[in-house]
Amino acid sequence: MTHSAALVERLRRDIGSERVRTDTVETTLYAHDASPMSGSTSVVCFPESTDQVRAVVLACRDHSRPFVVRGAGTGLAGGATPLDGAVVISVIRMNRVLSVDPINRRAWVEPGVLNLDLSRHVARADREFGLHFAPDPSSQQSCTIGGNVGNNSGGPHCLAEGVTTSHVLGLEVVLTDGSVVEVGGDEPETVGLDLRGALVGSEGMFGVVTKVCVRLTQNPPHVETLLFDYVDVADGAATVSAVIAAGMVPAALEMMDRLCIRAVEEYVHAGLPTDAGAVLLIEVTGSRHQVAHDTERIIEIARAHRCRTVRRAESEEERALLWKGRKTAFGAVARIKPNYYLHDTVVPRRRLPEVLDKIYRIVEEHDLLVLNVFHAGDGNLHPLIVFDRREPGVMERVLAAGQLIVEASVAAGGVLSGEHGIGLEKRDYMPLMFDEDDLEAQMALRRAFDPLGLANPDKVLPSPSGCGDGASIGEGMWV
Amino acid sequence: MAAVPTHLRDLVDEVHDAVSCGESVAINGRSTRTILDHEHSGRVADRVVSAPSGVFEFQPDEMTVRCGAGTTLGELDAVLAAHSQYVNLPGTGTVGGALARGWTSVDRLGRGPVRDVPLESLLVDHRGRLIRLGGPTVKNVTGFDLLRVTVGALGTLGFFGELTLRTRPRAIDSRWFTLDDVDIRRLTEIHTGLYRPSSVLWDGRRVWIHLEGHPADIDDTVARLGLDTTDEPSTPPHRWSMSPAAALQFELSPGDMVEVGVGLVHRREPAPPRPTPLLDVHRRLDEEFDPDRRLNPQIRRFGDGA
C-alpha cells in the first residue's frame, strides 16, 4: 500500500468514507481557491465536527502530510491553494450557528457558516435586538466566517466598525499536535497572551479553527446613504481626506472611477452619472442628530471639493440599488473584458490621488485597462486589471503591471494587503515591507503554534527552500 | 536589521550592550501600571532602560500618530486634542506602559479594547535588534499579527520603542449619568435599549452610563430613561474577567462594579490566579522571543504557568 493510500484508508476509517473524496473532479476543483494560483491535492475531507477535524489533523501528523483548511474558497491570494499534495480540509459542512446571546451581543458559530447567513440568522431569531455581524466582504453571500477569520477580512463597513479581528472574541482551534484548545473566549481578559489575535489572519497556518465566538453589532437607528460625483478622481480622493480630517468616520466611504462607473451602470442601471470621473458612495449611520449633523458637514466638504451633484438615497430600495452597484462591480467588468486580476493594497489616504495616478500610468504603459473600485475611507485600493487571456502575452503584462502597482503602494507608505491576505500571491513581496529579522519574528510565532509546520505550509512567509513548490499561475484566470 | 532611527539608538544600543554582556534588562516608564502579585518572578534586572519620548508624526487626516513608547499619555493627548482626536489608551503613564499592560478603560463597551489601538511597532528584541511589527496604515493584513500578541505581554516578548497608533475623533459631547434602584431586569432593558453607550457600569443596585455623541442625541436618551447627571465613577482596582452573562449573576460585594456587556467585575480583592491556557504555545513563545529571560526578568513568564 502506498503512503497516500494508507493515509486515505485511515481518513476513511476515522471520519467515514462519505467525508473523504479522492476522485479527480473534486481534487481538481479543490486544487485552487478564487485566486489565479493552482496547486494539487489527492484527497479532500469534509469533517462535520471538531472531533472529525482532529482525526484528520492527527492522520496528517502521523503521515507527515501537510493540510490546508478551506471555507468557501473565495480567497483571492491563494491562501487555500494546496501545495505538494496537501490534504484539503473543507469546513463547509460545519455550518451551524451554535448559540446566540443577543443581550450581550455575541454568538458561537462553526467556521463554515456563511458571513451573510449569520446576520440573517440573528435578524430572524432575535429580531427585537437588531444585530448583525459587521465585517461585510463583497463575497459575503458566499464566504465563510472561518475564511473571514483566516484572512482577517474587511469590507465596506469596516471603516468605522473595524475588520474581523475586532469582531472575534474567541476561537476553538485544533492544533497540529491534535490538541483542541480555546483561545480568547466569551470574556474580556483571558489569562496569557492574546493568541486569539495571532490566530485571526494567520491564513490557516497555525491550526484549524473549529468554532468562533463573534461579537455582534447593533443595527444603526438612522442611516444616510449619499452619492457624490466628480469630474476629477483627485477631488473625490481629497474629499475623503477632508472628511476624516474634520473628525468624522462614516460607516462606509467607497469610490469608483470612470471606467468602473460605466461598467456598473450598464450592469445594474442605478442611475450613476456615466460622464463622471469618480463617484463617492458614503454611508453615515448612528443616532438621529449625529447623522444629520455629519451628513450636512460631509455635503459641505464635498461641495468645497468640486462635487457636481449630491444624491441622497430617499428609500431603502434606492439605498439597496446604490449598494448593489458597488457590490456587483466585479461582475460588471465582464462586459468590458472576459478576465480580471484584482489587486489589494493600502496607502495613506492623503496619497490616494498620486498612487491612483501612478496606477493609471503603469496600466497604460502595459497596454491594459484598469477599473478602480475601492474602500477609499481606509486607503484600501482594489485596482482591477481587465484583459482577455486569449490575447498572446497578456498574462505577462498583467503580472508585471500588478507587481509595479504593489511596489508603488508600498513606496507611498502603504502595505501589501488590506483584506485579501498574503497567501501565495504576495508571499514573495513580503521583503518589500519586512527585513529578515522582522520575517524571522513572524516565523517564530508560527513555530510556536505549529512546530511541525504541517498547517498550510509555504504561504505568507517567503521561504527560499519551499518557494512555490507545486504552485502555478494558470493561463486561465477566474472570473 | 534595518537602519535604527536616531531617537531609538540609545534604547537599541543599551539593550544590545546589556544582552551582549549577559545581563538582564528591564524597561521602565512612569511606573503607573499595576503588576499583580502572581506576575512577579522575584528576579531583579541588571539594568533599567527607558523608551524614547515624543510625538514624531501626527496626521489628522490619516487618524494616525507616530510616537516614542516613552511618551506620556498626557503629552500625546495634548497634541491630539488640538485636532479633536484621542487615542483609546487608559491611565496617566506612558504609551508603552499602557500597551504592555494591555488593560482597557471602563469605556471598552463603546470604544473597544486597547489591543486595537497600535498599528505598527518598532520592537527591541532580546538580542537588541529592532523588529518591525504591523504596518503604518489604518488597515493592514500583511503577515501575521504579532503586534497584537505583544499587547499585554508586559514586555516579555520585546520592548516597545516606537509606535504608530490609531486615533479617533473626540465626541462632540461626553457625559456620565446614573440611575438608582436598577435590578437585573431593568438593567437588561437599559443595556439593550441604548444605542452604543461608551460604558454601562452596575453595582447591583445602581447603574452608571457614559454617553458620547451629539448633545441632542444624549438629551433624548436622558429624557427617555430619566437619567441623572453624575461624575465618572471610580472603580475598585482589581479586575475579575468572566463572561458578561456570568458577570451579571456574580455575587457582588459592596463597592464591586460590573462592566455590563463586557464581563469585567471591578473589585477590591485581586482575582485568584488562573492557569495559563495553551501552556505549550506560551512556552515556545518564551523560548523563541527571550530564551535567556533577559527582558523584564522581574516579570514571571506566561509559559511558567500560574
Structure explained in plain terms:
- The complex is a heterodimer of chains A (479) and B (306).
- Helix content of chain A is 34%, strand content 20%.
- Chain A has 479 residues and is an alpha+beta fold.
- Among the domains of chain A are: 110 residues, Alpha-Beta Plaits (2-Layer Sandwich); 75 residues, Alpha-Beta Plaits.
- A 7-stranded antiparallel sheet of chain A has the order 16-13-15-14-19-21-17, sandwiched between helices.
- In chain A, strand 9 and strand 10 form a beta hairpin.
- In chain A, helix 8 crosses helix 10 and helix 13 runs antiparallel to helix 14.
- Chain A is globular and about 70 Å long.
- The two termini of chain A are 40 Å apart.
- Chain B is of the alpha+beta class and 306 residues long.
- Chain B folds into 2 domains: 163 residues, Uridine Diphospho-n-acetylenolpyruvylglucosamine Reductase, domain 3, CATH 3.30.465; 95 residues, Alpha-Beta Plaits, CATH 3.30.70.
- Helix content of chain B is 25%, strand content 24%.
- In chain B, strand 3 and strand 4 form a beta hairpin.
- The longest helix of chain B is centred in the first third of the chain and has 12 residues.
- The chains are: A alpha+beta (479), B alpha+beta (306).
- Chains A and B meet through strand 10, helix 7, helix 8, helix 10 and helix 15 of A and strand 7, helix 5, strand 9, helix 6 and helix 7 of B.
